[in-house]
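U., I forgot to send this yesterday:
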Amino acid sequence: MYTAIPFAISKPDGIRKEPDMKESIRSFLDLLVSSPHGSCAADPEFGFVFKNFRFENFNEDKGVLYSSNPEKEPSVYHKHKIHGRSVNVNTFAFDLKKSIEQYEPRLKQVKVNMEYRMHEKTVVLTIQGKIGEKITEDFNHQIKIHVW
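Result:
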């Protein structure tokens, strides 16, 4: 049994539990992705850095974020690409993979793909990995973020 997210306490059962490990991991990943860096006082590194830039200007052609204050910072604000895979260092997908590896030990061999869909104005995160005692069970989860 795993603690359910969102965290809830009820009588007489106490802390609500999630019996399915995959569902527990999905809930935790949703929490991790929806939390900006610095939003958790106990651990300022917890969260997904992409959420910190949700109000920045976005160049759809180059797939990068620009500063919201172009007079002070005329160049690219964040050099990470929005569209990419976790094998490429200069992508938000790489940052998310590192966070997942740090905060979700039940998920092994993590791969993250981040795709910007221009017509839908969404970023689609696809998270893959392996779970289980012998790391044999496949895990897939997709998260959509509506942007700009």
